[in-house]
Amino acid sequence: MQGKVILEEHFAIQDTIGDSAGFAPDAVWPELESRLFDIQDRRLREMDANGVEIMILSLNAPAVQARPDPKVANDLARKANDYLAEQVAKRPDRFRGFAALPMQDPDMAIAELRRCMKDLGFVGALVNGFSQVGDEATVAYLDAPQYRPFWAEAEALDAPFYLHPRNPLMGDGKVYQGQPWLMGPTWAFGQETAVHALRLMGSGLFDEHPGLRIILGHMGEGLPYNMWRVDHRNGWMEGHKYHKGKRDISDYFNENFYITTSGNFRTQSLVDAMMEISSDKIMFSADWPFENIDHAARWFDACSIAENDRQKIGRLNAMKLFKLG
Ligand code: MN
User: Fold this and answer.
1) What's this model's pTM, rounded to 2 decimal places?
2) 84 found inside a domain
3) Whether residue 325 has pLDDT greater than 90
4) Is the pLDDT of residue 314 over 80?
5) Torsion sign, CA atoms 317, 320, 322, 325
6) Is residue 244 part of a domain?
7) CATH code of the domain covering residue 87
8) Pick from 201, 255, 264, 253: which is nearest to 227 by CA?
9) Catalytic amino acids?
10) All residues with CB under 5 Å from ion ligand 1
11) How many angstroms does the Cα of residue 219 sit away from the middle of ligand 1?
């Protein structure tokens, strides 16, 4: 399929390259490092070779979310966003940008989101899960009350918000102790991010701000497969109100969420997601440079779905959501 749009695709700057160093064996680190720094060369060749017209770029992870000092986080976000805006300006026909945001300080995050959307022409924001705030061990999830003004601004700016994974802190992830193979994309990213998304859904946030659009990668981080169980636990027990939202969790998932295929190139999983959230809410993505664009495209271009759905998932949904037309 030609004309595809992909949107969980990362780059790094010198200040954040170290954040990705742990995610590749030493032998392939030079390759990953060069992929992260490149924007205008190999990245465009990969897009050309695989029918990708537009890539929405975002900073690597956890980066800004792992800088506990709000001023340091804000300076880093602004630097990365300015750099990204320069790079997008070189090829506005092929690239767009997601804002990195200093969620350590909601007022700074609001100001930076506004700057990125209004002055830099970005199409939304990508945030790497919880933020460490003040010190390394203190974390803030985005359902916390201090973030409600931020969400109001995201809704007012019509800014889609990509909730991207990060690992839990070692002290908080005891189930993973002694099992480093489970960290990162294998399992911990998905579990951490799925729970974070459920926290948002169960917080009443989407009753207050029904216009918010949240994007999850990796085929929805397992949520489509488990959504029925979340809403139907212990079905015979009446009057079991167990979260703060006014509606069922799946109502928020279906109305306020989009998912992408990043790093999860599996037809069985895609079909399940299509049956839960519909092909109107799924967008093709790769997760470059951690996954290969050719692996993603070869799977997606040939997978057994209707051509109408392929067009929506591969291009049309993103064109509409990000107003790329
Ligand atoms: Mn990613």
Assistant:
1) 0.98
2) yes
3) no
4) yes
5) positive
6) no
7) 3.20.20.140
8) 253
9) 287
10) 8, 287
11) 12
pLDDT tens readout for residues 138-168: 999 999 999 999 999 999 999 999 999 999 9
- What's the whole-number average pLDDT of the chain? 97
Q: Which two tokens mark 263? A: 């790093």
CA–CA gap between residue 127 and residue 104 (Å, rounded): 11
Q: How many domains does the chain have?
A: 1
pLDDT average, residue stretch 193-219: 98
CA of 36 to the centre of ligand 1 (A): 12
Judge whether residue 42 has pLDDT over 80. Answer: yes
Distance 276 CA to ligand 1 centre (A): 23
Residue 241 in domain: no
Q: What range does the domain containing 294 cover?
A: 4-231+252-321
Share of the chain above pLDDT 70, in %: 99
Task: Say if 242 falls within a structural domain.
Answer: no
Separation of CA 106 and ligand 1 centre (Å): 23
